[in-house]
Task: inverse folding
């Protein structure tokens, strides 16, 4: 799949970006044979057939009225309108037969695109200011790119024989760097952003909030597979002392003994040597890469931190380590204020923007380090924080998508920062916030620990 070029000084038009975003998701759907659209690789998620329709239905439901278009398929507009929150309302119980045929959904998508594309050239001349200034197009683009990441880990969980393969992964035997801590001096962390400069973010990114963060220390690198293996071998999954009660109940109920992305080869035991462990990469299994970040749920990350006598960072601490400077200022990105461009040497700054299917060693992108020398903050896996997902002061729901964030301000989700290898560059902005429930192990999420 080709990587589109992002210009640093003249951003592409919204229409060009929409075409690029569609190409991203189309390429992911191309990995699925017809029958696999009706599989359910993750119990808490819809089947891929839903997402095939959802991406087009979202664009249509968001844009058609402002463009003066009338619905041609109201049943599909409604059927594919909304996704589900993992674990939020119980597991879905639909069957493959409850969904339309693949051909019907593909035809619906072609029709929606044709109708919208015909009207896009006049979108700047309409009376709706949110369409005229490009806001709604940017919402549609980022929504699609978010789902490109969802689709990646959804497909990742399909059996290899149920997807079209790409070249298998190469084993990575590089040793993990020795973990060390960076001292982060007292200073200000700026969360969120101010309004008034056009569409720059989702509702949970507003308003701007400044927090004074006391001095603390933080892991220079995310916790690696090698580090986490020590926790597993020390019996961390068998000792309730390290787990919150609700997390321990989940671990016991699911009979978890190791991270979701690890496999223990046949006949092996959790106490065996690390060579017995494998990593389920996107297109095959390889020996557990010691230097890659471990992907785990918030529950597992919290248990490791407790075992290590540390904590997960708060959202403000993470911001201070990522964007702050020893002299008190703040950067737009960990490496500075220059935006990221899709060219070398920018690729040395992190594993993001669809550059890889899998993680890379945590010390592979030193050019992306923060002013405090903290590495691998942006890309290579979202990073868990200890902060429950909640509104910033001055929060207002989006008038055109009122439930985007507000439905999840329930104390049951936690903020993640940074981005993964499948996160588009447009979502690397400092104010962007992701969130998931604590016992959802499928997302590309890593973590690091702090001491106060």
Result:
């Amino acid at each position: 799949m080709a990587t589109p070029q992002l210009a640093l000084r003249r951003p592409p038009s919204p229409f060009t970006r929409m075409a690029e975003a569609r190409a991203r998701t189309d390429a992911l759907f191309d990995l699925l044979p017809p029958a696999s659209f009706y599989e359910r690789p993750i119990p808490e998620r819809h089947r891929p057939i839903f997402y095939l329709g959802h991406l087009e239905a979202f664009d249509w439901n968001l844009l058609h009225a402002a463009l003066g278009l009338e619905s041609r398929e109201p049943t599909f507009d409604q059927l594919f309108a909304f996704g589900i929150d993992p674990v939020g309302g119980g597991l879905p119980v639909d069957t493959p037969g409850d969904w339309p045929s693949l051909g019907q959904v593909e035809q619906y998508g072609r029709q929606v695109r044709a109708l919208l594309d015909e009207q896009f050239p006049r979108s700047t001349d309409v009376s709706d200011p949110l369409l005229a200034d490009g806001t709604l197009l940017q919402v549609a683009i980022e929504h699609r790119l978010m789902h490109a990441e969802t689709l990646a880990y959804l497909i990742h969980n399909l059996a290899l024989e149920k997807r079209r393969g790409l070249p298998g992964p190469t084993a990575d035997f590089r040793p993990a760097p020795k973990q060390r801590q960076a001292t982060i001096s007292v200073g200000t962390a700026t969360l969120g952003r101010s309004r008034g400069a056009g569409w720059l973010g989702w509702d949970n990114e507003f308003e701007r909030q400044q927090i004074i963060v006391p001095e603390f220390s933080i892991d220079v690198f995310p916790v690696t597979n090698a580090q986490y293996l020590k926790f597993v071998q020390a019996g961390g999954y068998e000792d309730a002392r390290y787990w919150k009660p609700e997390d321990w109940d989940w671990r016991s109920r699911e009979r978890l003994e190791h991270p979701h992305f690890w496999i223990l080869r046949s006949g092996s035991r959790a106490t065996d040597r690390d060579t017995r462990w494998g990593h389920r990469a996107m297109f095959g299994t390889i020996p557990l890469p010691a230097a890659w970040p471990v992907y785990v749920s918030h529950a597992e990350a919290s248990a490791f931190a407790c075992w290590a006598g540390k904590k997960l960072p708060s959202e403000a601490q993470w911001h201070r380590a990522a964007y702050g400077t020893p002299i008190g200022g703040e950067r737009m990105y960990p490496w500075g204020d220059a935006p990221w461009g899709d060219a070398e040497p920018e690729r040395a700054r992190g594993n993001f923007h669809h550059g890889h299917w899998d993680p890379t060693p945590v010390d592979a992108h030193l050019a992306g380090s923060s002013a405090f020398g903290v590495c691998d903050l942006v890309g290579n896996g979202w990073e868990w924080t200890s902060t429950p997902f909640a509104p910033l002061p001055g929060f207002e729901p989006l008038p055109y998508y009122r439930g985007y964030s507000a439905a999840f301000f329930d104390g049951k989700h936690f903020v993640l920062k940074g981005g993964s290898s499948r996160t588009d560059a447009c979502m690397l902005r400092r104010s962007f916030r992701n969130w998931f429930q604590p016992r959802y192990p499928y997302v590309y999420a890593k973590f690091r620990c702090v001491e106060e």
Notes: The chain has eleven helices and twelve strands.
